[in-house]
Amino acid sequence: MLSAFCAAAIAIAGYLVTDAYLGLATWTYATGVQGLVFGQTIASISVVAYFLRDRRGHCSWRVVFAPVLGALGLVVGLIMIVGNFEITTGMDGAVNWILLAPTPLLFGGGLLYAAWLKRRSPAVYADLGTQQAAHEHFIERQEG
Prior knowledge:
Layout: H1 2-15, H2 20-53, H3 60-83, H4 85-89, H5 94-100, H6 102-120, H7 122-127, H8 131-143
Helix pairs in contact: 2-3
């Protein structure tokens, strides 16, 4: 399967008359980095939201100000990455937006699926992210 993807990437690079490494690898690297920073940004915002509800007895610096500064730094970094994406990919135009689009679209899809799951299967929703749920899923896959 991996060989098929590699062959497809080389074929695309050949069709586009670009170097497979400098072209496609750079695009995937750029997309991966922005996806990683997007994920870290979302996680840091969720940390701020969590500690605003439950400070767990810690001082304001530890659970409010430091996490907010970290989240702001990641937001600024993400804005800079998206705003200057053509520098990383070496391309101009719509292709950059096509490379950027899957990250927020998949995130939004995940939120919609979670909302649907919370409404339709509250027990399954409550188990999301638990070790028990992961174990049960693994067992089901082994048996099926």
